[in-house]
Amino acid sequence: MKKNNLIMGYVFLAPWIIYFMVFLMYPFYLSFESSFLETNILLPENTKFVGLSNWISVVTDFMFWKSLFNVLFNQVIFVFLSFFIGLGLALLLNEIKFMASFFRTIMFIPVITSITVAMVIFDFISGPSGPIQSSMINAHIISEPIFWKFEQWLPMPVIAVFSAWKWFGVQMIIFLGGIASINRSLFEAADIDGASWWRKTRKITLPMIMPQIIFVMTMNIINGLQMFIEVFMNFDLSGGPYQSALTPVLYLYQVGFEKMQMGEASTIGLMLAAVIYLLTMMQLKITSKED
Q1: Whole-angstrom Cα distance, residue 220 to residue 168?
Q2: How far is CA 257 from the centre of its chain?
Q3: What are the start-end ranges of the H helices in 96-154?
Q4: Contact status, residue 44 vs residue 194, Cβ threshold 8 Å
Q5: Which residues cross the membrane (predicted)?
């Protein structure tokens, strides 16, 4: 009986195992192999082994480290901004009883909006002639319109604000699910003791939704460091006049498909994967200590 159950288990796992091997492990193997080769997809017959040349080239490449700095700069703003907006709205909506579903749906609309459409709308709103800058000029916060795409330090913070607005709804729903799963008797006992809303939030809600917090932070790091569409729509492959919006994935695409250096592009991808792994492990280590 146990043997039959084991066989059935592997049968049900087979589709995922096949997917994992064919679409994840095999491409990873090809990328790792390509990182030691000088190869051009248009001239595959000229492929030759170059050893660690691609790795040395990427490690000493200023543009790779600049792209990595850019995306880390962006993610510091995005992760904290989207986290606090998502958590704050989840706590607020958890207290709302009247038309709660309506407000949750409204908050989730940016998530289901096409990222292309959302970026076009945001570009208009945040542009020099958009309502945000017009209001800031009228309030004497700024003296003249700002062309943020042509500034050296503004592209990544502005895109981080856009990303936070676009994706905070996902985090809000995850946090709402975590809050809903907390045993109500804990709050009832806290009410009997006369605990305030803030004390209940700090001592009960936040510790109890720590698994959701860890999951959200981890996924933000993994997905955020692979940012591509947001910057590509605004700056193409150049990354802006100062390369201030250049990201590792954008640079990888540039090296692989513009310069046709697939070996170096594979190395950039593997370096990015290593950075994501290290940052994710660091984040999990820090949050596990706090827990």
Answers
A1: 11
A2: 24
A3: 100-112, 115-126, 131-138
A4: no
A5: 7-29, 72-93, 105-125, 164-183, 204-229, 260-279
